Amino acid sequence: MRMARRDCLVAGGGLAAALLTGLGTSAHAAKRPATPVVLGHRGCSALRPEHSLGSYAKAIADGADYIEPDLVVTRDGVLVARHENNIVETTDVAMHPEFAGRKTTKIVDGASQTGWFTEDFTLDELRTLRVKERMVGEGMRTESHSYDGMFRILTLAEIADFLAAESAARGRVVGLIPEIKHSTYFAGIGLPMEDRFLKGLGESKYLATAPVIVQSFEIANLKMLRRALHDKPNIQFMQLIDDDAQRPADVVKAGGATTYGQMTSARGLAEIATYADWVAPWTRQLMPLRADGKLGEPKPIFADAHRAGLLVGCYTFRPENQYLAADFRNDAGANARNPEGSVAEIRRYVAAGLDGFFTDDPALGRRALAT
Question: 3-state class of 249 per DSSP?
Answer without folding.
Answer: helix
